[in-house]
Write a structure and sequence with these properties.
- Helix content is 7%, strand content 31%.
- It contains two helices and 13 strands, in the order H-E-H-E-E-E-E-E-E-E-E-E-E-E-E.
- It has a 13-stranded antiparallel beta sheet with strand order 1-2-3-4-5-6-7-8-9-10-11-12-13.
- The protein is elongated.
């Protein structure tokens, strides 16, 4: 590798460091710890993890101490793009140890253009990733959560233009790694839940609607009545072929 790489790496790190203080930089050639994703996450998960492997050809890695304890808690892997002397470094993986226990609690993967693809988070510091956020064109589109720590996704939050618009929950635990079966659907406006549908008998259809009419800006046009007799709304396909758009009686949704 040419001598231009370490110089450009230092410049790239200065631009991308998230620390507000002075960071200790240590270049290394060893791959950092790999995160474990929840059952039911997207098929591309395993491939993305390879982006944190600093031993692959054309990779550079740097570690930082942002807490001042002389132990690196942030690790970044860069991909060298282009030919000398016009080589540039692109951030493709960032890992962070938030609680200083030596295990990475947040891992974010980027594509070859430096745009985020996915972020995995261990929220309770038990060594298992329990939240995964997905991005498209650099913008957040979905977050999947394992809230009961059983290793399976039970909550999904969907976004439009960076704002949460809908939450789906599997309260009964019927979902599998390849099939998503929510039984509660929560619709949001300006961060506030304005409508919630519940599937009480487990048939995949809304049996009861609860609405906050005082804050809803749109009427329940085309929405199933509270007796569960629905309109058979259209569903969207998701990763693995599951239906992610809401219950059959959820009514019209905005076009994506």
């Amino acid at each position: 590798m040419t001598r231009a790489i370490p110089i450009l790496c230092a410049l790239a790190l200065a631009m991308t460091s998230c620390s507000g203080g002075t960071a200790t930089e240590r270049d290394r050639r060893t791959a950092g710890p790999r995160s474990r994703a929840m059952a039911g996450t997207s098929p591309g998960t395993q491939n993305d993890r390879g982006r944190c492997d600093a031993t692959a050809e054309g990779r550079e890695v740097s570690e930082y101490d942002t807490s001042g304890d002389d132990r690196p808690d942030v690790r970044k892997v860069f991909l060298a793009v282009g030919q000398s002397p016009m080589i540039r470094l692109v951030l493709i993986c960032r890992e962070a140890d938030l609680n200083g226990d030596g295990t990475k609690d947040v891992v974010r993967y980027y594509n070859d253009e430096g745009r985020p693809l996915r972020e995995e988070v261990d929220r309770d510091f038990d060594g298992q990733m329990d939240q995964v956020t997905y991005f498209e064109d650099g913008r957040i589109v979905r977050t999947e959560v394992d809230s009961n720590r059983d290793g399976r996704v039970d909550t999904k939050v969907f976004y439009e233009q960076g704002r949460a618009i809908r939450t789906e929950r599997d309260m009964s635990g019927h979902s599998t790694p390849t099939s998503w079966h929510p039984d509660r659907w929560e619709y949001l406006e300006d961060g506030r839940m304005v409508r919630m549908g519940s599937d009480i008998d487990g048939d995949g259809r809304v049996d009861r609607w609860d609405r906050d009419s005082a804050h809803a800006s749109t009427p329940d046009v085309g929405v199933a009545p509270d007796d569960g007799e629905g309109t058979g709304g259209e569903a969207e396909a998701t990763d693995g072929g599951a239906a992610d758009a809401g219950p059959p009686d959820a009514g019209p949704r905005r076009a994506r």
